[in-house]
């Protein structure tokens, strides 16, 4: 029956909860799928060298504050155009649709299938279904020149059903800031299937880490069979800059130091002389002509406009004026941060809700079937009917929260109550997607609830 | 349409060198219209769609490049400012090699202007990032709406990961700046004399004005619109809205 395969996956998941070092209820099913995937398709290669690279590559996700361990400090390189663009074909929504259709049982995390920012390396590994096929064909010119992506091998079909595991892993990486320290492990685990499967693609090696940063993976010059164009962008960090300054000072100061010398001293993998050169130039300008470097973007302001605002401010004296300026700037910064966080949460939630919605459809069918399998025959029908309304109630309460615009606290309690009701009616490990839905919901409820979007 | 106007305003009021780095919202909107008016699965449909996607990607590359460039500049300047302040403290500060209150104050005053402007420029970059993101989100929404496509959700996920939107480092630098300013220029410092008036340069003015403009624009954009839905941001409530409005100069004030 339909229920069977899904149940088996679930059980195996329950047994190996900590396989990937993933924590949190929401992700408890991930190991199940990934392990399943790995068992089916892979022999795990030696982890040592790969993990170092993984770390390197996942660093960019937490970019500024972390320093990769592989080399002292590593900046982050970005392939400027194709890196991003090549992912576009995978960012269309239909892959997730397809996934959902193929896998009637979708348990695990809410991030599961929604958006698939698949890494470049998996071009050949995963289906590249798109909304309209002409998307791909017409755009392959401007996008990365990965030759093989249009025809994917048959084993990719098998992967389709397990894609969501990968996707959910990746989405975990993307979405949940709280699991940042788990990313290296997750990325590592995720990346491996890609490595093995897409082995024929040379660029796989360094494109793997997490899909979220494929446009800024650390480019390893030694294996730079990148799809990227000639000048990968370097993303500087304060730590990297420190190392730079160190090197410059050792070489006798910014005037005397040469790009080549600095490059050699820094010993940073992936750093090219081109990067050092331009950075050195900026550095010199900043040191010796601070006025001009600061004012460079503003020289062309018309005097009249500025004198008029000068008028306004000079009534106060410069200190006061600067203080005021600071206040406004601080305010703007604050608001921008808040806005940005909101935007992130909104998108997160959008994905969860969509997943939930999709789940509900397939889940309800599943429920009826599975509850008939699990429960005693006498209570069979009553359970089935109990669960569906409970789930509906959940959705309804979500919508109520949205419509009344209640704050997260209320949403929290309502949603959790509903989850508990559902949970109480089911047996432990076999609760399957409902349990997952619960945890999704609890996660959701911590954010401002909004109306689910049905047209997507 | 409202956003388009707001964006235009922002671009007009922004630092001149930045003007061509913003989202070409109008252009993208035109393409969406073109796509939706073309018969589905026709050649022109395909072409328009391809161009749309191509442009989108190009825009993002543009943002990334510009953003990372500025970010690099900021990293360098931040360090320089920190060092400069340290030098002043170490030389003319109370525990310095040649303590001199007058010199200290003098030098610090110069630095102060720089650091405040630096702070402002960084915040403006954050604003740049955000307004472009907002524009992208809106145009994607339009696309989905007009063409019935499902591009928005996955595409925006990608965008969220782009360098130009991951502004953590800049944010960190901004906070460090604020801390430095609070430390070095404590609130109880007495007001400088009016002679310092001339020291307020054009640079400072530009940034201040831009910041004000940016704040107000943000407020405007977030006012509830007809298409307000769960993907929209709530309205922005600025407590000192009136005060900020008074700083907003859209036309030059004639000087008597």
Automatic annotation (TrEMBL), chain A:
The keyword Transmembrane does not apply. Belongs to the MYB-CC family. It is found in: Nucleus. GO terms for molecular function: DNA binding; DNA-binding transcription factor activity. This is Protein PHOSPHATE STARVATION RESPONSE 1-like isoform X2. Residues 228-288 form the HTH myb-type domain. The keyword Transcription applies. It holds the Pfam family Myb_DNA-binding. Residues 119-140, 203-228, 369-383, 398-421 have a biased composition (Polar residues). Signal peptide: none annotated. Residues 384-394, 423-438 have a biased composition (Basic and acidic residues). Keywords: Coiled coil, Nucleus, Transcription, Transcription regulation. The gene is LOC111283978. GO terms for cellular component: nucleus. InterPro entries: Homeodomain-like_sf, Myb_CC_LHEQLE, Myb_dom, Myb_dom_plants, PHR1-like, SANT/Myb. Residues 1-27, 110-140, 202-232, 369-456 are annotated as: Disordered.
TrEMBL record, chain B:
Residues 1-157 form the SPX domain. One of its GO terms (biological process) is cellular response to phosphate starvation. Pfam families: SPX. InterPro entries: SPX_dom, SPX_prot. This is SPX domain-containing protein 3 isoform X2. The lineage of its organism: Eukaryota, Viridiplantae, Streptophyta, Embryophyta, Tracheophyta.
């Amino acid at each position: 029956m339909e229920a069977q395969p899904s149940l088996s996956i679930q059980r195996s998941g329950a047994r190996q909860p900590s396989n990937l070092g993933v924590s949190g209820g929401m992700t408890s099913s991930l190991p199940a799928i990934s392990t399943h995937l790995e068992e089916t398709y892979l022999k795990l290669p030696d982890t040592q060298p790969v993990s170092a690279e993984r770390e390197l590559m996942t660093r960019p996700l937490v970019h500024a504050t972390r320093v990769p361990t592989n080399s002292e400090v590593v900046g982050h390189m970005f392939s400027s155009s194709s890196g991003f663009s090549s992912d576009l074909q995978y960012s269309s929504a239909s892959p997730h649709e397809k996934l959902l259709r193929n896998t009637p049982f979708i348990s695990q995390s809410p991030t599961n299938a929604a958006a698939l920012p698949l890494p470049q390396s998996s071009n050949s590994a995963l289906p590249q279904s798109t909304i309209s096929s002409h998307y791909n064909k017409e755009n392959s010119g401007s996008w990365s020149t990965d030759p093989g992506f249009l025809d994917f091998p048959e084993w990719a079909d098998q992967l389709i059903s397990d894609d969501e595991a990968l996707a959910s892993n990746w989405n975990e990486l993307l979405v949940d800031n709280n699991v940042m320290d788990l990313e290296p492990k997750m990325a590592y685990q995720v990346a491996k299937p890609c490595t093995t499967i897409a082995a024929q693609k040379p660029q796989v090696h360094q494109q793997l880490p997490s899909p979220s940063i494929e446009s800024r993976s650390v480019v390893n010059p030694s294996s730079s069979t990148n799809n990227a164009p000639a000048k990968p962008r370097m993303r500087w960090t304060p730590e990297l800059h420190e190392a730079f300054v160190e090197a410059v000072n050792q070489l006798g100061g910014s005037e005397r130091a040469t790009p080549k010398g600095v490059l050699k001293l820094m010993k940073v993998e992936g750093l090219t002389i081109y990067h050092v050169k331009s950075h050195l130039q900026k550095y010199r300008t900043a040191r010796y002509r601070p006025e001009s470097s600061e004012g460079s973007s503003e020289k062309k302001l018309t005097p009249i406009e500025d004198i008029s605002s000068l008028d306004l401010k000079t009534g106060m004296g410069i200190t006061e004026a600067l203080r005021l300026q600071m206040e406004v700037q601080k305010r703007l910064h604050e608001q921008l941060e808040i806005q940005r966080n909101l935007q992130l949460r909104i998108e997160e939630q959008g994905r969860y809700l969509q997943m939930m919605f999709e789940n509900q459809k397939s889940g309800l069918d599943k429920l009826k079937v599975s509850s008939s399998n699990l429960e005693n025959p006498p209570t069979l029908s009553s359970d089935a009917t109990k669960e569906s309304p409970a789930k509906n109630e959940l959705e309804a309460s979500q919508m109520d929260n949205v419509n009344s615009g209640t704050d997260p606290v209320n949403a929290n309690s309502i949603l959790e109550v509903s989850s508990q009701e559902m949970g109480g009616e089911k047996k432990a490990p076999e609760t399957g997607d409902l349990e997952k839905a619960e945890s999704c919901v609890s996660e959701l409820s911590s954010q401002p609830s909004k109306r689910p979007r049905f047209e997507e | 349409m409202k956003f388009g106007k707001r964006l235009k305003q922002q671009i007009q009021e922004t630092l001149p060198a930045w003007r061509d780095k913003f989202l070409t919202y109008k252009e993208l909107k035109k393409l969406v219209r073109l796509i939706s008016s073309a018969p589905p699965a026709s050649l022109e449909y395909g072409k328009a769609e391809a161009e749309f996607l191509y442009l989108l990607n190009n825009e993002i590359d543009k943002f990334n490049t510009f953003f990372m460039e500025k970010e690099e500049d900021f990293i360098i300047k931040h360090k320089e400012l920190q060092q400069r302040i340290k030098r002043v403290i170490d030389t003319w500060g109370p525990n310095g090699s040649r303590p001199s209150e007058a010199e200290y104050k003098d030098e610090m005053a110069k630095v102060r202007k720089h650091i405040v402007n630096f702070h402002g420029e960084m915040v403006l970059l954050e604003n740049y990032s955000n307004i472009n993101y907002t524009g992208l989100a809106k145009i994607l929404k339009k696309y989905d709406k007009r063409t019935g496509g499902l591009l928005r959700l996955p595409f925006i996920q990608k965008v969220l990961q782009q360098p130009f939107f991951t502004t953590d480092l800049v944010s960190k630098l901004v906070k460090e700046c604020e801390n430095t300013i609070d430390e070095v220029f404590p609130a109880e410092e007495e007001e400088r004399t009016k002679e310092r008036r001339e020291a307020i340069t054009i640079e400072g003015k530009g940034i201040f004005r831009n910041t004000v403009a940016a704040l107000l624009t943000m407020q405007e954009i977030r006012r509830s619109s007809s298409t307000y839905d769960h993907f929209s941001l709530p309205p922005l409530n600025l407590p000192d809205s009136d005060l900020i409005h008074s700083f907003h100069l859209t036309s030059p004030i004639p000087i008597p």
